[in-house]
Amino acid sequence: MPVLFVGVQGCTVEVEPGLVFVGGGGGVANGHSCYLVQPESGGLLQQLPIMPHDRQDHSCGAVPARSGVGVDIVVAGGYDGGYLDSVDIYNTETGVWRPGRPPYVD
């Protein structure tokens, strides 16, 4: 029987065909947990390093890495007892989280 990953209030984004990032939220996962999942085969592929910020009800997206190597998964906003305005970025090749540096306007 395939393993089914269940989470709520997190985010999901397709990293490449057949590979999905699932991060944060509540339910089975906690707000720091992140996974790569292969929905077609019904299973968890890999648990990733935890996100720097606990997040629920946040957004995420996948973009080509600015380094040209791998994919950057951008995780932004959400809630952790208060609303967040921070951004965390995970690179699929390096396996490292880094803070996003949004251009704040005065």
Q: Descriptors for this entry?
A:
106 residues; 4-stranded antiparallel β-sheet; mainly beta; 0% helix; 10 strands
Briefly say what this structure is.
By secondary structure, this protein is mainly β.
Task: Tell me the layout of helices and strands.
Layout: E1 7-8, E2 11-16, E3 19-23, E4 26-27, E5 34-38, E6 43-48, E7 59-64, E8 71-76, E9 87-91, E10 96-99
Antiparallel strand pairs: 1-4, 2-3, 3-5, 5-6, 7-8, 8-9, 9-10
Give your account of this protein's structure.
The chain has about 110 residues and is an all-beta fold. The protein has one domain. The chain contains no helices and ten strands. A four-stranded antiparallel beta sheet has the order 2-3-5-6, with no helix packed on it. The relative contact order is 0.19.
Q: From the alpha-carbon coordinates, what is the Rg to the nearest angstrom? A: 14 Å
What is the tally of beta strands? Answer: 10
Number of folding domains?
1
**Derived structural class:** mainly beta
